[in-house]
Automatic annotation (TrEMBL):
Entry coiled-coil feature ranges: none
Protein name: F-box/LRR-repeat protein 15-like leucin rich repeat domain-containing protein
PANTHER family: COI1 F-BOX DOMAIN-CONTAINING PROTEIN, PARTNER OF PAIRED, ISOFORM B-RELATED
Annotated ranges, domain F-box/LRR-repeat protein 15-like leucin rich repeat: 155-299
SMART domains in the record: LRR_CC
GO cellular component, one term: SCF ubiquitin ligase complex
Length: 416
């Protein structure tokens, strides 16, 4: 280090305490500025490391121990692997043992697609991470109730649990959550198809603060479970996703309309027993909250449902009625006269075979903010027919005329 200035001024490291340097660090904005702070000298690097809260790494046990020693203030750790480029076995139980013993203050842990971990390692997290409130083990295919029940028992502050694609999970885990994790707010269990109404009902008995629930493709869940969670969570429930839950019908929607007046997002695609009556009730009950609604392949729905939603739900930004074959041009006639300016940004009407260019034109007159329009597999609505009719799409609106219905567009899917 260079000598003090000739005027006798003190060096900054001699003047500022560690606490004062931490205060300087907290006022730095971009990550690059904070990283530059640590390049000044070893002391500043030590302070910067102790204040770092988030870590993302791919590391074995030895490296994890070093990370824990250097970043003692870390609260969030992400060891997720890419689903398409996973390094098997990647993260293993030995890594979880180190995490449980060395990152005792951890609040958030993400282990998505870590296919090498088992119940043995996950159970250790329950022993060591008593302050954990968010755990994501989506698509960790070896995990079963045994390991995650240990987490539920030990991590009773848990508020968010994502177990999407963990097919070995059953009702037993939901029962354990209902007894231990009473502050749970967010459960993502899509594809856990051994879960039944009994498990969802048990969850509702103990966890009364559920805000976000995703049980898509849990095809053993039907009206009894959904009705129970709707009543228990009541106005706290903001989002419920029931994609391809074939046993879900009108009773569930009526219950959501009755109890969940703050519902923001509803996914009922593939629930083919839902009819206009329940959707009309939902539109009237959640007119001030509903923003995103996916109900593709709900084959009983007609223009009545869609008109009710578009005419009442003033904050609706995205709706998907793809493959609802009874939807016609009538759904979009004169809906601009509903007393408010529509905020709709995403309209998916793919494979609505009765729709014509006239219906699309009516929709465009009402939805000035539209950013994405999906008209794939609508035989009467093509690029040529729209050009011939002089249809004017909003500036910046992406119109999807072609492609497989199996292909999703991220610009639209983010709403659902």
């Amino acid at each position: 280090m260079s000598a003090p200035p000739s005027g006798g001024g003190a060096l900054i490291n001699e003047v500022l305490t560690d606490d004062e340097l931490r205060a300087v660090l907290t006022h730095l904005g971009p990550e690059a500025e904070r990283d530059a702070f640590g390049l000044v000298c070893r002391r500043w690097l030590r302070i910067q490391s102790s204040e770092r809260r988030r870590l993302r790494a791919r590391a074995g046990p030895d490296m994890l121990r070093r990370l824990a020693a250097r970043f003692s203030g870390a609260l969030e750790l992400d060891l997720s692997q890419s689903p398409s480029r996973s390094f098997y076995p990647g993260v293993i139980d030995d890594d979880l043992d180190v995490i449980a013993g060395s990152f005792r203050n951890l609040r958030v842990l993400s282990l998505q697609n870590c296919k090498g971990i088992s119940d043995v390692g996950v159970a250790k997290l329950g022993d060591g991470l008593l302050s954990l409130h968010t755990l994501d083990v989506s698509r960790c295919i070896k995990l079963s109730d045994k390991g995650l029940k240990a987490v539920a028992l030990g991590c009773q502050k848990l508020r968010q649990l994502h177990i999407t694609g963990c097919r070995l999970i059953t009702d037993n885990l939901l029962i354990a959550l209902s007894k231990s994790c009473l502050q749970l707010e967010d459960l993502g269990a899509a594809g856990c198809n051994s879960i039944t109404d009994a498990g969802v009902s048990a969850l509702a008995d103990g966890c009364h603060h559920i805000k976000l629930l995703d049980i898509s493709k849990c095809n053993k869940v039907g009206d009894p479970g959904v009705c129970k969670i709707a009543e228990a969570s009541s106005s706290r429930l903001l989002s419920i996703k029931l994609l391809d839950c074939s046993k879900v019908g009108d009773e569930s929607i009526f219950s959501l309309a009755k109890w969940c007046r703050n519902l923001d997002t509803l996914v009922i695609g593939g629930c083919r027993n839902i009819s206009d009556a329940s959707i009309k009730a939902l539109a009237l009950a959640c007119y001030n909250s509903l923003r995103s609604l996916r109900m593709d392949w709900c084959l009983k729905l007609t223009d009545t449902s869609l008109r009710s939603l578009l005419s009442n739900c003033k904050h609706l930004v995205a709706i998907d009625v793809g493959c609802c074959g009874q939807i016609t041009d009538i759904a979009f006639l004169d809906v601009e006269g509903n007393g408010f300016q529509s905020e709709l940004k995403v309209l998916k009407i793919s494979s609505c075979v009765q729709l014509t260019v006239a219906g699309v034109s009516s929709a465009l007159k009402s939805f000035k903010a539209l950013e994405y329009l999906d008209v794939r597999s609508c035989p009467l609505v093509t690029r040529d027919s729209c050009e011939q009719a002089g249809v004017q799409f909003p500036v910046g609106c992406k119109v999807n005329f072609y492609g497989s219905l199996l292909e999703s567009d991220p610009s639209a899917e983010r709403f659902f």
